[in-house]
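Re: that backbone. Tokens:
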């Protein structure tokens, strides 16, 4: 249960997604399953579905993942995709400039 007393479910996946489109498809399928079993209506609009997606970048050829940052606050699947794209661009710019990515949650 969350702080408001509503049932809550947390899902964590392995770092296997390589694009915002893949992450959005994952959340779309997860939402379909949650609705299908009747666990929740899973609507961004009323807060019954919220996503905190962690994203990290690494240079081509590197095997270690970079420092992850979370993206939160998207109000729809298209917004989630846009938020992930924006965070990807932000992290790439930092890495390209030789700066460190700091772990944090970025609100959309």
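Recovered sequence:
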């Amino acid at each position: 249960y969350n702080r408001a007393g509503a049932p809550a479910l947390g899902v964590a996946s392995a770092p296997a997604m390589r694009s915002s489109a893949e992450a959005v498809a994952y959340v779309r399928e997860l939402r379909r399953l949650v609705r299908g079993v009747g666990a929740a209506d899973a609507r961004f609009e009323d807060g019954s579905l919220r996503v905190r997606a962690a994203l990290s970048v690494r240079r081509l050829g590197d095997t270690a993942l970079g420092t992850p940052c979370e993206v939160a606050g998207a109000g729809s699947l298209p917004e989630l995709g846009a938020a992930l794209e924006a965070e990807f661009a932000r992290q790439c710019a930092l890495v390209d400039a030789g700066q460190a990515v700091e772990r944090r949650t970025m609100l959309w």
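The first helix runs from residue 20 to 36. The two ends are 24 Å apart (CA to CA).
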